[in-house]
Amino acid sequence: MLLGQLGCPYIDYSNLDPTSTPPPPPRPRAKIIHIAGTNGKGSVAYKIASTLTLAGVKTGLFVSPHVSSFRERCQVDFECITEDEVALHLPSIFDACRDNDIPATFFEITTALALEYFAARRVEAIVLETGLGGRLDSTNIVASDLAVVTSIGLEHTRILGDTIELIAKEKAGIFKEGKTAVVGVDLPMGVMEGRAEEVGCRLVRTRERGGEGGFKDMDFDMQNGEIARRAIEEAVKIKGWEEVRAKVTSSHMDEGLRRRPPCRYETRTATANGKSITVILDVAHNPPALQELMKKLDKDHPGRKVRFVVGMSSDKDLALCASTILGRVDASQVHLVEAVHPRAAKIEDILSAGGPGLSKCHYSLGSRGVGEQTLLALNLASACPDDEIVVICGSVFLMASAREAIGIVEPRDSEFIAKEAGANLRADLQEHFGNRILSEDEDEKKEELGR
């Protein structure tokens, strides 16, 4: 394995022991930016990687979860890892796990795959998005040059803690001694400052810009752009980043920060019954993100009729998600769907959480299909004389089927990739730290894993 060449230890999943393998031959270490946050971390990662790539810096990008193909998780200069490269690198990782009796999770193996691949491609920089939390996330084995925390919200409370402060502490766990950390504006700064002081990390807060209300006047994409801008500005000041600093110009920055990943308020056009329908895809998957989506819709399309296709993950606040949507439209304008994924919320659970307010919504307990309800929404929108918009939102796990339904053609995983990437692993284990599944009463085990 080549992980040591990237400034991180060989992954021995049983104890993350950096002494478990001989040191690799010396070579220039990749520059690493590590990003955590409740919302925005994927977008910030994408914007930073876009800027570096535009500047001619060979950049590895690790993000999750994927929209249409597993290979999206590992990219170099925005080209996905190929099937041949997956086949080349996965066997050695599986062998190491089997030979050492290591019950690695899907996300740990995917992290190892990405870092192995980036090393083999000899990237100059890596932009690494955490899977969940930060302190115990498998991406936190890296010796990053810069840490970024975008935002903090109540999510994954069973694992991260049930207060904003506890969750903030977990995400600040990616701060590294002697390095710099950039944080967003609306965070519990006492926790951030305490962690920075504890590890000897320089803390930089994103500047508030933009109208009288500053950061709060901006939409999510603009906020993410400002966080990414500050991260890049701080990164190029770091010793050893001189070559990157010489390459990145203001035009690269401006163009890179304008870019956004798929399904982040992505506007498309679909056709139904000969009529063009505006479709917006957005992975607003929790109450804060849905609230921002509603604000953005009101700003961009004031008074315009909207129809929602919605599917959520089971670990979200379904009642608050439902009430947020019903605060914008009548239930007759809502289509409930259920992604084919172990984390998907059952339609029955969304109906129960939403109460009587959802009684008039559209759904099918037979097919539960994303594609079926998306097509129904398009047909109903085409019959509306008011130029109705269709908004597809919620879990990222429904987006591949929704995109296919509106005519977007994208690479999908072959049977080989589905088999190899699955390899007796369950995708729902992505959320679990270390090598154990944490139950409600396993707080002590969580602490043990953090030692």
Automatic annotation (TrEMBL):
PROSITE patterns: FOLYLPOLYGLU_SYNT_2. Residues 35-207 form the Mur ligase central domain. One of its GO terms (molecular function) is tetrahydrofolylpolyglutamate synthase activity. Pfam families: Mur_ligase_C, Mur_ligase_M. GO terms for cellular component: cytosol; mitochondrion. Coiled coil: none annotated. SUPFAM superfamilies: MurD-like peptide ligases, catalytic domain (SSF53623), MurD-like peptide ligases, peptide-binding domain (SSF53244). This is Mur ligase central domain-containing protein. It comes from Triparma retinervis. The lineage of its organism: Eukaryota, Sar, Stramenopiles, Ochrophyta, Bolidophyceae.
